[in-house]
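Objective 1.3, modelling of assemblies. Example input:
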Amino acid sequence: MSEDKNRYGQTTGHVWDETLAELTNPPPKWWMLGLHASWILVVLYTLYYPSWPLVSSHFKGFAGWTAIGEFKKDMKEVQDVRAKYEDKLPGMTAAAILADNELKNYVVRSAKVLFGDNCAACHASGGAGNPGFPALVDDDWLYGGKIENIEQTITMGRKGMMPKMGGAQLTDAEIDKLANAIVNGTVTKEPLFAAKGCIGCHGPDGKGMAALGSANLTDKIWRFKAKDQLASVKTTIKHGVNDPSDPKTRNAEMPSWKGRLTDTQIKKLAVYVHELGGGQ
Amino acid sequence: MSESGTSIQEQKVKYSDDIYEEAANWHVNTGDEKIYPKKAAGKWRKLKWFTHSVWLILFLGPFLRWHGQQAVLFDIPNRQFHIFGLTILPQDVWMLALVLLFFAMLLAAVTSIAGRVYCGFFCFQTAWTDLFIWLEDKIEGVPAKRRKLDAGPWTSEKIRKKALKYAIWLLIAVLTGISFVSWFTDARQLWHDIFTGQASSTAYGVIALFTAGTLVLAGKLREQACFWLCPYARIQGVMYDKETILPTYDYHRGEPRGRLKKGNLVEGNGDCIDCKQCIAVCPTGIDIRMGQQEGCITCSLCMDACDAVMDKIGRPRGLIRYASMDEMDGKKQLPLFKRPRVLIYLSILTLAVSGIIYGITHLGAIEVKVLHGRSPLFVQRSDGTIQNKYDVKILNKTANDIPVKITAEGIDGMLAKGTEDTVIAKKGNTGSYIVFINAPAENIKSERTPIIFKIVNQDDPTQTSSYESMFFAPK
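Predicted structure (tokens):
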């Protein structure tokens, strides 16, 4: 056993099974260099960056670095790039922005986020609309498709009213007749249309009136689109839209965004919606 | 039956003995032994300085100008490569693959014909090491003096010599680093920025890495890099065949070797006088007389050394010369065009070159890509037409802002809104333009109809590009 000890060199005194020994050989030099370099790095790191907890706060680090500071710096870089456009927007009308090609392109690209945050929940991310919520990509507008109309719609909100026509005004048979004519696009030829006073809001030509927000009944676009369009039209005629006297009435309200969005944000959204494909 | 069995057994034993015998005398230098190569002189040395000088391009290239701009600039932050007025963008990167294929095949073809020509004559490791050893020889003297100096105590003379040597090495190393970085940024501005402390931390970092790398690789590791670090050294070794010409010791002529007696060859001895000059000049410290081996970078300096000795003792040159194994075995050398490997390498080389030439001549100046708008795929309009939205992306690779006309066709009676006016495509940029297409429902034959978008540079109508997209319609 003593021979074995000599062969292994100095042991720590821990020797098992006669030959299994823990030696006192030093680690290689490169390894020790690595070890010392590591702890020195740790010390420098904790001096440079925020690190040690203190009683009420923490050591801030000599570099003054903070995560939120870095975030703000990055944000400022983005804002600096956008500033040359953003600075112009508050002093311009939505129509003027639309007329300026470069600004319009900037708004169309950048307002996508605003639209996604505020509008997409009802109107879908691409503006295609959802059941009960109108599409913004087509060229049919209840309240007009000019940039000013759109801006006003966003600012003030819209809540159109169509009284319920079921019960006292129209029998179910009459509603059937009218609904079929509307779905076939021949409503103006249906005598009931004029006789029952529909023309008062929808106009003698059936194309609706932007001032009232009444729907165009002659085109292929439906405010309350459904798989069974005939049934949908019947429901609308029978119960009306936003008629407080009928609990089954259709709910159709666009809220006002004034106060929730800044004027500039509303202008941007108006331009964005106008450029979705149907602006006039 | 049993007789032949025994003989196979005997052969096996002999074979294994042979292996150990061969390896017993095989000296492998794993860096424990420093090589002090002697300065060689002769035609190969001259040729090598000449071929090494291709690396001057590294130092001088970034200062070339072309039409008032840096001729070659690999502008990584802006994702553009400029090569003599040619702009190469990331989408053209397939050409880089062909360039790499070209050089890989060139390496294979040359190696198959004449061995590690790249290692010996062109490799930066050899070039920088040769330069560093040349300086070492100038400052510290011939190998014997260098050995003595290294072994001796730190006298003031040793300190002076070592300091001078390392100072010059450091200068070369720093220059190497700066020159490398110069290819990736404005070279003149870089020199200015480096010395005013305004260069980017990336630039300083890369220069530091290259400085350290140059000093370690050319000053310290040297042949060890070729032995143990470099993959090409090993790959090329297996590309040899019996027809490959390599620096070869002609053992038919040289053996039996023996020292001169009274200045004359001993009767019956070969031409090799065992002067060991071939070993003395070898930068990797091998003995070429032991045959081809992994340590040989085919630098040819042993041929210079041996030829000089042959001249002195009045024997013909070429005891060590470029020769193939076939030649040593007395076989006839196959001509190049009859060697299948050479032919295959050359045909791949030709393909790669044709691809690169095609790519460079067909680098379109403008390019169009079209993204079809989703959500919704199509819009029903009040007049019964169907509308699709497209994002037309136009890439302008030319050096000017150009007016571009967009056209689209595919469905009868369709209307493309957004293509009425020419658009301005900014130079070196991708511009995005929204186009709406309205098509009458009665002319739409299927759910999906191909639409061809085409763009034309109004300043130069030969520059066009087109892209096929789809028009979606309800069932």
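The interface with chain A takes residues 373-376, 379-384, 387, 389, 432, 434, 436 of chain B (CB under 8 Å).
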